[in-house]
Each structure stands twice: as C-alpha cells, then as structure tokens.
C-alpha cells in the first residue's frame, strides 16, 4: 500500500478515480486530512444481503439476483431503463431514469448486487436507480449469503457523488490516516473523561461497528469543538482581565441612599437580587460583562438605571443603548421625568438628530458636560468619544456578540485611566442558558424571574378575520370605558413584493375611522415618521389624548404605556413567536389586566403552532422553548450573528453536560496555562488559533 500523510493531496492517491477526485475537490476536499474531517451526517443500518422476496418496502436493503429481462422505454430525457432481477425467492424490478447507456452495460444472464430502498410496485417491489455492482461470473458461486448487517455512514449527497462512493474512497485511507492523527488531549486526560482518542473517533465515525461506536466518536468530536471554543473564550477573557481595567464603583451607604430616593417604587425581590449582583460586579476593577434577562415587563429599566446612577455618583458617565430610535426616545423621556430636579445631565443621541444638534451632543459627551447618554447605535460610532464612561447598558439586545463587543471597544475616556466601561446587556428574549454559556463563556447571567406586584397575565385570544368587526366593536367599548388600545399591522402601505393579502396601516386606519372606531381619537405610528412627530404622538398617547394607536412593529420592544390594556394584532400569523410575545408585552404593564387579540388565518403548520402557543402560554421562557421546537435550534442559535464559527458535530442545546464539562475543563486549563504556552499545550494551542483565533482576535494574545 502507498504511504500517505495527512497532507498528501488526493491526486497522488492512485486508488481514487480521477473523476471522483475532481468532485471531492469541488467540495473543498483536497487532501487526506480534509477527507478525514469530511464527516457523515448520519448513519444507518444496511441489512445484510437478503433474498429478493425478503426485501421490505421503505427499508434500505441489498440483494443479489440474475437479470432475466431488460427494456428501454421513453425517449431523450424521459428515457427509462428497466431491469427485472430474479433469484430463487422472487423478483425485483429496477428502474433507471435517463441512463439508457446502462442498456449497453447490463444484459440478461448477468448477476447483480443491488442496494437501495425498494417501494411497492404492482404486486411486487421496485428500486429506482439503486446502487449496483456486477458480479463477475466466476464469483457468483462464492457469494456469501450469511453476511452480517452493517452500520454505514451516510455522507451528505453532493453533485454527482454518492455517499457510497465517498465511503469507498474514505476506506482506502482511513486506517493509515487515523494512525497519523496526533491527539491534543493526553491519554490520562481522555481516560478521566472516557473519551476515545482522536484517531479512534474519526475511524469510528467513518467506519463504525455499531451505534455505540458512533456515539462515542461523536462525543469526542463534539467535546473538542466545545472545548476549543471555550478555551478561546477563556483565553481571551484572561487576556482582557490582565490588560483592561474599569473604574471600581463602590456602593457606599450615602450613594445608596441617594439612588433609593430616586426609585419610584419598591424593587421586587428579583430586581433587588440582580441589583445586588450588578453592584458587586461594579465594585471591582475587572470589567463587568453581565447579561440580565427578564421577561417583558419584568422591570429591567430600573435595574439598569440603578447601575448607571452608581457610575454617575462616582463622577463618571453612563450610557444606555437601545435598538430603536423610538425606544431610545422613550427611555430619554421617562428617565428625564424620573430624574427631574436632580443634577444629572441627560442627552439623547440618535441617528435622526440634525447635524448641528448632533455635533453639540457629541461635544458634550467628549467634554464631560453630560452624565447620562441615551441613544441608539450612534453611540458606538467612530465620532463619539466619551469623557469618562464607566457603565454601558445595552437594552433589548437579542443578538449577542457583535454589539456587545462594539460596546467593549468603546474607550472609557480620558478622565480615568481605565480603558473600558463595565457592560450590562439586557434581554427579554431569554436565550436558553446553554447558548449563553457556549458563546459567551465570558458572560455572567442574572435573571429577573418575577413580575412587579399586581400584574395579571395578559389574556390572549385568536380569532379569524371574519370576526374582525366584532373585535373592533368590543375595542370601541373598551375605549369608552377608559382603556387605550394598540393595533398592530404588518405593513405601512399596500402592495410591496410578497406582502400578498397583508392589511396595511393606511387601509386599516381608513376603514376604522369610517367604521367601528369613527368616534375615537386614532393616530398612526411608524418608522417613517420624523422623530419630533413620533415623540409628539407618543407623548399624547401617554397623556391619554389619543385612544388608539395604529402602529407597525416599531412599538415591538420596550414601549411602556401602563394605561394601554388592549392590543389587536392584524395578520398575526405573519409574525414570529418572539416578536408576538414582545408585542403582547406592550399591554398589561400597569395594574389593569391586558387583552391581546390575534387576528389571523394561518395557512402553514408553523403559523398555526405559533398562534396556539401564544394563546396557551404567557411565559417568555416557555415560549422560547416552543420556538425552538417549531423553528429548530440552528435558527435560534444564530452563531453567524455572534461571529463564532458554527459547530459541525456539537449540539450545545442538547449536550448540556458535555458543554459544562468542556467549560469547566477549559477554565481550569487556562487557569494553569493562560497562554497555552507549555510544550504539552502546543498542539491544542495551534488547533485553537486555527479554529477561533481570527474571530476572537486572539492573534495578539501572548
Ligand atoms: P422591561 O423589563 O420590559 O424593560 P420595564 O422596565 O419597562 O420592563 O418595566 C415595566 C413596567 O413596570 C414599567 O411601567 C415600570 O415602571 C414598572 N415597574 C418596574 N418595576 C416595578 C416595581 N418593582 N414595582 C412596580 N412597577 C414596576
Ligand atoms: Mg425594557
């Protein structure tokens, strides 16, 4: 046998047919090592060869028979080639589409081994385009019918290359290649964790003897992926801790008094717990990096405000970054209101600020003439330099990583020597804990798992569009009784591609003004309005001068109008589950119970499932789990958004124990060897930098 290394190009391996080698190259597989890591996506049992009569419809099987008849029918691209195969037990029909050249290859009297999934065909069975091999005449006698079942890898189907062909090629190099694989985990380390060696893992993945081989191999490979990511995150964190400092913010009794005096209500136990957790973080020089998750309406704003006031009390600045202008504006108005009469100087910085105003605000931020800056993304733009930023809060952040890192890069400013602020991220979209742990191994998590007192869960109903008129009659009655109402629509104007039958804001408004809601005060709110207009409308709605707000999803996050109790969502099936839950969170925020009516006629299974989940569940945590079920993990995981390369083998949502093990191991490892620069770490370090060095920016580490 030819001797190979992991970097031997496939074109030097003589046993691989050229055509197939070229196809592998298209897949990005050029050498032996790459072939080894080209993993099957699943495995299946292949039944041992059976009599033709023993084949079962729908079950992959293999059998041997003699060709007793062949026939070509149809012409050109429609041509099909049919073969009848017989043995002593029965008959199997084969059909090959668009492969009439086979007529020159397969003849009556030949013996054929076929493999495939037969289906019912008349009284018997048929396989279409099965894999087959012609058994040479001399070998027919030697056919062994007592083989065992075989557990086979299935490779993702690719252009012109069957799984079977890949398997055949892999087998030619497998044993040699696996023996060459160096392991970055020592024998002892693996033994403690019951992990197979890397070589064994790849061998079992490609050529397992049983399900348990695959399980064991998967566990090792998944562990490696999780470990590498965690090592990277911990290494980065250790590096940051050594090099970056934030101003320590001690919560003295006097400061505490002053902050408490500003609180409009008593904190819930959960809020108090989180405030304490954050205060403890902030008292250290180590930059805080904490995620606060709490369902919609759980009262995250006040917790953030508390931390920001702590920074300001120490003479530093604090910033609050919101995902939309509307939310930034609202925070600006309500926090200004709350801090009325104090010395705290507050500024708003959003993209729609006129240039002159923007320049003025930016210069106040740089000179330290303002203490609390509320804004959107504009806060992390190049031109913004802080005088002395000590606490940065990111509100309603559903996608983690990118923005968070941007905020971390914001310099603390010239006035204090530290380079970075403490960062607190808030979300109402509970990321399953595991995701937080995986990607943000460096993120501490606090949960506000309690709603403010007196809150009654929102009642949710689903009605079909025919009942719309009844719904709006009822809405009118609620308004007459003093309630305020949101109506949410999916589009502003008619038309637009792919919007189909969606009811738009203008049409709904016109219809209601001339119909069920002709005698109430209606206003429209959407993203295309000017900031002044938007603020004016929100202000009037809050003051009770508008009864009914017809809005797009601009009101999705954070909008807080305690007197609004009713929400009607048109075309509710068009919205995602997380979005519906956020929207619903706009009502029932005071002590009056909220009602949410979903109007929709869902046509897809997912749409039906979403509305059902909304009616049955009020907890955001439960909904996010259902969302996972409906959408699948990949979508929610969103590794792309965070910048992390996706996992090939690991499924951190399911393999929680493995994840925890990897996290703990990585923590210990980095504690012992922060730069992985011991000789015994060299291989792990090299593989780590290859996998994660770039996106984690580890190039500069050590
Ligand atoms: P979210 O977590 O969705 O951001 P908010 O911070 O906007 O929630 O708070 C929702 C509403 O509950 C606001 O009107 C806020 O004033 C009120 N609230 C928050 N905490 C309390 C509390 N401890 N007691 C009473 N009301 C509270
Ligand atoms: Mg909020």
Class derived from helix and strand content: alpha/beta
Number of strands: 22
Estimate the global geometry from the Cα principal axes: globular
Beta fraction of the residues? 15-25%
* Gap from first CA to last CA: 44 Å
As an assembly, this protein is: single chain
Query: Main β-sheet, in a few words?
Result: 7 strands, mixed
Highest CATH level, the class of the largest domain? Alpha Beta
* Overall pLDDT: 86
Small-molecule binders here are: adenosine-5'-diphosphate, magnesium ion
Strand order of the largest sheet: 6-7-4-3-2-5-8
Counting structural domains, the number is 4
Give the C-alpha Rg: 32 Å
Poorly predicted regions are 634-641
CATH architecture group name of the largest domain? 3-Layer(aba) Sandwich
The number of helices is 23
3D architecture notes:
This protein has 702 residues and is α/β, with parallel strands linked by helices. Helix content is 38%, strand content 17%. It is built from 23 helices and 22 strands. A 7-stranded mixed sheet has the order 6-7-4-3-2-5-8, with no helix packed on it. Strands 12-13-11-14-15-10-16 form a 7-stranded parallel sheet, with helices on both faces. Strands 17-22-21-18-20-19 form a 6-stranded parallel sheet, with helices on both faces. Helix 5 crosses helix 6, helix 8 runs parallel beside helix 9 (300-313) and helix 10 crosses helix 16. The two termini are 44 Å apart. Residues 634-641 have low confidence and may be disordered.
């Amino acid at each position: 046998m030819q001797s190979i290394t992991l970097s031997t190009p496939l074109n030097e391996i003589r046993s691989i047919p050229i055509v197939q080698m070229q196809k592998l190259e298209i897949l990005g597989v050029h050498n032996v090592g790459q072939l080894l890591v080209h993993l099957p996506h699943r495995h299946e049992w292949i039944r041992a060869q059976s009599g033709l009569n023993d084949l079962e419809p729908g079950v992959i099987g293999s059998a041997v028979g003699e060709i007793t008849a062949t026939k070509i029918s149809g012409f050109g691209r429609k041509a099909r080639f049919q073969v009848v195969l017989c043995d002593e037990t029965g008959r199997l029909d084969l059909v090959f589409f668009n492969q009439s050249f086979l007529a020159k290859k397969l003849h009556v009297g030949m013996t054929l081994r076929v493999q495939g999934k037969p289906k019912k065909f008349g009284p018997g069975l048929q396989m279409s385009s099965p894999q087959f091999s012609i058994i040479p005449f001399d070998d027919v006698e030697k056919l062994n019918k007592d083989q065992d079942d075989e557990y086979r890898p299935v490779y993702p189907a690719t252009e012109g290359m069957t799984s079977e062909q890949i398997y055949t090629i892999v087998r030619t190099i497998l044993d040699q290649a696996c023996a060459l694989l160096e392991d970055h985990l020592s024998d002892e380390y693996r033994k403690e964790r019951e992990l197979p060696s890397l070589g064994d893992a790849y061998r079992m993945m490609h050529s397992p003897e049983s399900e348990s081989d695959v399980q064991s191999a998967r566990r090792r490979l998944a562990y490696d992926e999780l470990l590498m990511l965690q090592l990277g995150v911990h290494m980065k964190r250790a590096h940051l801790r050594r090099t970056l400092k934030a101003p320590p913010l001690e919560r003295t009794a006097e400061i505490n008094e002053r902050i408490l005096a500003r609180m409009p209500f008593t904190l819930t136990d959960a809020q108090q717990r989180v405030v304490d957790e954050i205060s403890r973080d902030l008292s250290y020089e180590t930059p805080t990096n904490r995620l606060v998750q709490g369902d919609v309406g759980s009262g995250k704003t006040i917790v953030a405000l508390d931390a920001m006031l702590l920074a300001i009390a120490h003479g530093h600045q604090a910033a609050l970054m919101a995902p939309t202008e509307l939310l930034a504006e609202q925070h600006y108005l309500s926090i200004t209101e709350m801090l009325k009469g104090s010395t705290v100087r507050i500024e708003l910085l959003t993209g729609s600020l006129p240039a002159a105003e923007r320049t003025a605000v930016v210069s106040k931020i740089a000179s330290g003439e303002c203490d609390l800056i509320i804004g959107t993304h504009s806060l992390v733009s190049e031109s913004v330099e802080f005088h002395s930023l000590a606490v940065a809060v990111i509100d309603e952040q559903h996608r983690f990583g990118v923005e968070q890192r941007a905020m971390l890069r914001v310099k603390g400013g010239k006035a204090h020597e530290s380079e970075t602020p403490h960062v607190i991220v808030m979300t109402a979209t509970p990321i399953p804990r595991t995701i937080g742990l995986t990607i943000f191994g460096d993120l501490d998590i606090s949960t506000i798992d309690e709603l403010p007192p007196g809150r009654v869960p929102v009642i949710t109903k689903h009605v079909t569009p025919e009942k719309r008129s009844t719904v709006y009659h009822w809405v009118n009655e609620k308004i007459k009784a003093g309630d305020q109402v949101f109506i949410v629509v999916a589009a502003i104007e008619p038309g637009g591609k792919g919007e189909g039958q969606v009811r738009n804001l203008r049409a709904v408004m016109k219809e209601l003004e001339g119909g069920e809601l002709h005698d109430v005060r209606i206003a429209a709110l959407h993203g295309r309005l000017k900031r002044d207009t938007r603020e004016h409308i929100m202000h009037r709605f809050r003051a009770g001068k508008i009864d009914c707000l017809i809005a797009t999803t601009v009101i999705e996050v954070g909008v807080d109008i305690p007197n609004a109790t009713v929400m009607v969502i048109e075309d509710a099936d068009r919205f995602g589950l997380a979005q519906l839950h956020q929207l619903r969170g706009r009502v029932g925020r005071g002590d009056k119970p909220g009602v949410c009516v979903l109007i929709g006629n869902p046509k897809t299974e997912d749409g039906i499932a979403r509305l059902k989940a909304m009616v049955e569940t009020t907890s955001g945590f439960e909904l996010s789990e259902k969302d996972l079920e409906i959408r699948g993990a990949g979508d929610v995981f969103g590794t792309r958004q965070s910048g992390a390369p996706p996992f090939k083998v690991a499924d951190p949502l399911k393999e929680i124990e493995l994840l925890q093990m990897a996290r703990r191991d990585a923590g210990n490892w980095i504690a012992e060897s922060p730069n992985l620069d011991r000789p015994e770490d060299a291989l792990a370090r090299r593989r780590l930098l290859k996998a994660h060095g770039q996106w984690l920016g580890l190039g500069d580490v050590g």
